[in-house]
Write a structure and sequence with these properties.
Layout: H1 7-17, E1 21-25, H2 26-39, E2 44-49, H3 56-63, E3 68-71, H4 74-82, E4 90-92, H5 99-108, E5 112-115, H6 118-131, E6 135-142, E7 152-153, E8 163-164, H7 168-176, E9 181-187, E10 191-192, H8 197-218, E11 224-226, H9 244-261, E12 266-271, H10 273-276, E13 280-292, E14 295-300, E15 323-326, E16 333-339, E17 348-356, E18 363-367, E19 388-393, E20 396-401
Parallel strand pairs: 1-19, 2-3, 2-12, 3-4, 4-5, 5-6, 6-8, 6-9, 9-11, 11-12, 14-16
Antiparallel strand pairs: 1-13, 7-10, 13-14, 13-18, 15-18, 16-17, 19-20
Helix pairs in contact: 2-9, 5-6, 8-9
Length: about 425
């Protein structure tokens, strides 16, 4: 899990830019995108989910590979615009869009707009009438079955997301009564952080079969079907990374059949975590070490306000991300609780992790931190500064976020 992160280089970055520090390696991002394109059927159109990491420069670099963008808020829309993304390459979804948000989406001309309830469809129609426009809308479907193997279930039960599969006929009848709306797409997302290629392939087949049935039953002409994604990354002991080649093989037949039958319908797939997670390292400096009731603590200047996922967010049982001490070889090893500077006992980014004996000034790295790191953390808790973010692009080091910059334009680019 730790290969590719040179100790000397990480120490040098920490010295040059200070800590806490997020480091992103663009070579890994590009390799992940290349693997998806190499192994997944070419009929699939890839979208990057900004929620995984919305750093503007990183988003721009991803968009420059030909990857489209999936956004879920007006803030993310602004990031996408600052990154140079065309509305023709944007997918916009979310269960709680305001009227202002819907108006801006319509005014912007976003190509793939996904509604998540029948009341939202009515509001979209009202706003469209106010603006004198007609709107092409997709609908998110909450599937009737839950996926096995997803670390976070997004469908298959009572959810705020989408319209239940069983309500599709009712929804289609409603759209026929709304003069400003044309149904152009179906979107489904079963779950996330799935490590089984078989499970993801079954999800894709299920969604495409459902789309085929409703196209036939309602005589629809759809521009797209979104099959979600959910491609996972192994973080914890006992987990294995997703076999993307196997996923491509297992999903080939269902995608091929749908694409051949519905030649004018694009197949959309999202990926956030898989593209950027392994490309990120969170660096923090040890400030103090101590022993409390026989437990060794390393207190660092980083913490859960910057990396709540490492602190156990979303996991019923506390597990450690891959942790590394970038220090010279030392014979003595201790099992540490690695904490941050916050005044809460919950500020632990690793527990009972075996590391070489630590000293003040040592650099700790939390690997696989490119996704849901800073973006999924309570950055205002105790009001510490944000960490810098640095992007490695070949031989260049780009500062892509300064401390206290909550939104940054993509200006520090090496062309």
């Amino acid at each position: 899990m730790m290969s590719g992160w040179d100790s000397e280089k990480m120490i040098g970055l920490a010295e040059r830019y200070g800590t806490p520090l997020y480091v992103y390696d663009l070579a890994i991002v590009r390799e992940k995108i290349r693997k998806i394109r190499e192994h997944i059927h070419p009929a699939v159109c890839l979208f990057y989910s900004l929620k995984a990491n919305p750093n503007t420069t990183l988003v721009r670099k991803i968009y420059e590979t030909g990857t489209n963008l999936e956004i879920c808020s007006l803030y993310e829309l602004k990031v996408a615009q600052m990154a140079g993304c065309s509305p023709k390459h944007m997918l916009y979804l979310g269960p709680g869009k305001s009227r202002q948000e819907i108006r801006q989406i319509i005014d912007c001309g976003i190509r793939y707009v996904v509604a998540e309830s029948m009341q939202e469809l009515e509001v979209i129609n009202q706003v469209a009438e106010e603006t004198g426009k007609s709107v092409q809308v997709g609908v998110r479907i909450n599937p009737a079955v839950a996926v096995k193997g997803a670390r976070l279930q997004m469908g298959g039960a009572a959810r705020q997301f989408g319209i239940d599969e069983q309500q599709f006929d009712e929804m289609a009848a409603l759209i026929r009564r709304l003069p400003r709306i044309r149904l152009t797409g179906i979107h489904t997302y079963h779950g996330t952080r799935i490590l089984s290629a078989q499970v993801i392939a079954e999800n894709i087949a299920y969604i495409l079969q459902f789309a085929d049935r409703v196209i036939e039953r309602h005589r629809l002409t759809l521009d797209y079907v979104g099959v979600g994604g959910g491609m996972g990354v192994a973080y914890f002991d006992g987990e294995s990374d997703l076999d993307i080649a196997r996923l491509g093989h297992l999903s080939q037949r269902s995608i091929e059949a749908f694409a051949a039958k519905h030649k004018g319908t694009s197949i959309l797939m999202e990926s956030g975590r898989y593209i950027v997670a392994e490309a990120g390292m969170y660096l923090a400096k040890v400030l103090y070490t101590k022993v409390s009731q026989d437990v060794h603590f390393a207190i660092t200047n980083g913490g859960t306000h910057h990396h709540m996922a490492a602190g156990g967010m979303g996991n019923a049982f506390r597990k450690n991300f891959p942790v590394r001490a970038f220090v010279p070889e030392r014979q003595q090893v201790h099992r540490y609780h690695v904490s941050g500077p916050l005044c809460t006992p919950n500020d632990l980014i690793a527990k009972h992790v075996s590391l070489p004996q630590l000293q003040p000034g040592d650099i700790i790295g939390i690997a696989r931190s490119g996704a849901y790191g800073l973006t999924a953390s309570p950055v205002l808790f105790l009001s510490h500064a944000l960490p810098r973010e640095v992007l490695l692009d070949g031989g260049h080091e780009l500062i892509v976020r300064e401390r206290d910059e909550y939104m940054v334009p993509a200006v520090r680019l090496v062309m």
